[in-house]
Design a protein that fits this description.
Radius of gyration of chain B: 24 Å
Strand content of chain A: under 5%
Shape of chain A: globular
Structural class of chain A: mainly alpha
CATH class of the largest domain in chain B: Mainly Alpha
Largest sheet of chain A: none
Largest sheet of chain B: none
CATH architecture of chain A: Orthogonal Bundle
Number of helices of chain A: 11
CATH topology of chain A: MetI-like fold
CATH superfamily of chain A: MetI-like
Radius of gyration of chain A: 23 Å
CATH architecture of the largest domain in chain B: Orthogonal Bundle
Oligomer: heterodimer
Largest interface: A-B, 92 and 92 residues
Number of helices of chain B: 13
Distance between the termini of chain A: 36 Å
Distance between the termini of chain B: 41 Å
CATH class of chain A: Mainly Alpha
Number of domains of chain A: 1
Helix content of chain B: over 70%
Helix content of chain A: over 70%
CATH topology of the largest domain in chain B: MetI-like fold
CATH superfamily of the largest domain in chain B: MetI-like
Strand content of chain B: under 5%
Chain lengths: 286, 271
């Protein structure tokens, strides 16, 4: 098939139309309109960088970014530790390993919105009840303070995504040649030494993959945020995605919301490209 | 037998962790069978009489038959379209080794980096202006957002399919489209399963896009769940029964296709 062939273009038309009309045109259109007083339908004046300069003093937006970054860092560390541990657990010769894989993975199939509602019940009612029965004050009102709300979101995300990260680590763990482990055993390495010197370096590429995934996912989280805390109390657990949706559709400030969306896009791109760069550099080393 | 004892300990830890993982579902289901008062007096107790009235009421209020139908319709049509058109594109790009097709592939792959929230506002505005804020518009949007990863996976899978098959088909008088339909597409079936699973998971569970596009009458399950939950914030017995109902289709699907689902996800994640 050559570029000059009609069939080449016919085969690509549906997806190109989809990509252009759904992603590329809105991205360009939105970026242009973020420099105007656009209200979603029409724009009359060009305001230049006004919206972007306003962003610098928008405490709500800055707080949302800080909260998102903190949340992402904590989630990435916990998720990778948890995912790798679960993967090591279910790749052992135990009878329940298949069943456990199925169980750990299950929350991933259920949407974030629904999972958030389930955990809302657990944090409010179940934690509250247990706290009352055991006289532990800290168990009560989990979603009504900023710090416990933060950990509530972290717990929910870890419970949901650990199974996914586990699957990635399993794929890499299974590629480790058994002879290496056996040879180390014969040389007298204990299980910690085998983990540190063989398993860990060989699953390191899985870390790159899962770091990319957890980073981009946790940065874009919306559903869980909405259904678990709805940003409360007082917008203190609000993440960037939610802040943008609120600005655009609740406050009806389309151009300003879009300026936030452009900044968000730039942040996500920088993170992603840094990741890819890091990834490539590593591939050369190995 | 030291290692046997060690495995026994690992097994026990695994089972305990598995139970911990399932506990949110357990708490949801058990409490869905209680009366409002029973939840208030003891969340951890077993229900006295397993009340099923909550489920009947939640089912009716969720208008579950309609929202299930909407979810199935939108997911099946979107994923079908994504599979077919992405396979075609992956085939064309893999069989044409030019700078242009390399650039096109790169364009599709880089589109994966764009967060939805960055295009959401103009997208809704543009589609609103041409009266496309409906199910057809939503399905088309899913094609736009879903095709990138799918094309990438199909493109990778095409390297395993010999070019001589195309040539043989052309000699037999088939045109490019016939070659694709009768020879290539059937051979891509394993990757189509992976592409299908990955897309079903996110489209089925998507909330934000349907919430911006569809009204309450055409709501999918997550969207309807959102409205429903807002109505019953202080009535956990009904809210939990609703959540349980909403999860049933997923659990049933997972039960029948767990092997393919885990395999599909691992292939999609590792590539």
């Amino acid at each position: 098939m050559r570029n000059r062939d009609l069939s080449f273009w016919l085969f690509l038309t549906p997806v190109l139309l989809g990509l252009i009309l759904v992603v590329i045109v809105p991205l360009i259109y939105g970026t242009v309109f973020s420099f105007t007083d656009w209200n979603g339908l029409s724009a009359t004046t060009f305001v230049g960088l006004e919206h972007y300069l306003n962003l610098l003093h928008d405490q709500e937006f800055i707080d949302a970014i800080v909260f998102t970054i903190l949340f992402s860092v904590v989630s990435i560390i916990l998720l990778n530790a948890l995912g790798l541990s679960l993967a090591i657990l279910v790749t052992r010769q135990i009878k329940t390993n298949n069943m456990l894989r199925t169980i750990f993975f299950m929350p991933n199939l259920i949407g974030g919105l629904i999972l958030g509602f389930i955990w809302q019940f657990i944090f409010i009612s179940v934690f509250g009840d247990i706290g009352e029965a055991l006289q532990i004050e800290a168990m009560q009102g989990w979603l009504s303070t900023t710090s416990t709300g933060f950990w509530g979101l972290v717990i929910l995300t870890c419970w949901q995504m650990a199974g996914y990260i586990m699957i990635i680590y399993i794929a890499y763990l299974q590629n480790i040649p058994n002879e290496l482990i056996e040879a180390a055993k014969i040389d007298g390495a204990n299980s910690w030494q085998r983990f540190r010197n063989i398993t860990f370096p060989l699953v390191a590429p899985a870390f790159t993959v899962s770091m990319f995934l957890t980073l981009s996912t946790s940065f874009k989280i919306y559903d869980q945020n909405l259904s678990l805390t709805n940003g409360g109390p007082f917008e203190s657990t609000q993440m960037v995605a939610m802040e943008i949706v609120k600005t655009a559709f609740s406050a009806n400030e389309m151009a300003y919301g879009q300026a936030k969306a452009v900044v968000f896009f730039i942040i996500v791109s920088i993170i992603a490209l840094t990741q890819v760069y890091y990834n490539k550099k590593r591939e050369v080393d190995m | 037998m030291e290692s046997k004892r060690k495995l026994y300990i690992i097994e026990t830890v695994g089972v305990l962790l598995g139970l911990l993982w399932l506990s949110p579902f357990y708490l949801m289901i058990v409490n869905a069978f209680k009366t409002k008062k029973e939840i208030f007096t003891g969340v951890l107790d077993l229900p006295e009489a397993f009340t099923t009235a909550n489920f009947v009421e939640a089912y009716i209020d969720l208008d579950f038959t309609t929202s299930l139908f909407n979810s199935v319709l939108i997911t099946v049509v979107s994923v079908g379209i994504i599979i077919f058109f992405s396979a075609m594109a992956g085939y064309a790009l893999a069989r044409n080794k030019s700078k242009l097709s390399g650039a096109l592939l790169l364009l599709f792959v880089s589109a994966m980096l764009i967060p939805f929230q960055s295009v959401m506002i103009p997208l809704v505005s543009l589609f609103g202006q041409v009266e496309m804020l409906n199910r057809a518009g939503l399905i088309f949007m899913y094609l736009g957002f879903g095709c990138s990863l799918s094309i990438f996976l199909y493109h990778g899978a095409m390297t395993g399919i010999s070019k001589s098959l195309d040539e043989a088909a052309i000699i037999d008088g088939a045109n490019k489209f016939q070659t694709f339909i009768h020879i290539i597409f059937p051979l891509l079936k394993p990757i189509s399963v992976t592409v299908g699973i990955l897309n079903v998971i996110w489209i089925w569970n998507d909330y934000l896009l349907p919430s911006l596009i569809l009204g309450e009458n055409n709501a999918t399950i997550p969207l309807k769940m959102f409205y429903f939950f807002g109505q019953y914030t202080k009535q956990w017995h009904l809210a939990l029964a609703g959540l349980t109902i909403a999860i049933i289709p997923v659990i049933v699907g997972y039960f029948f296709a767990q092997k393919q689902i885990i395999k599909g996800v691992s292939e999609g994640a590792v590539k």
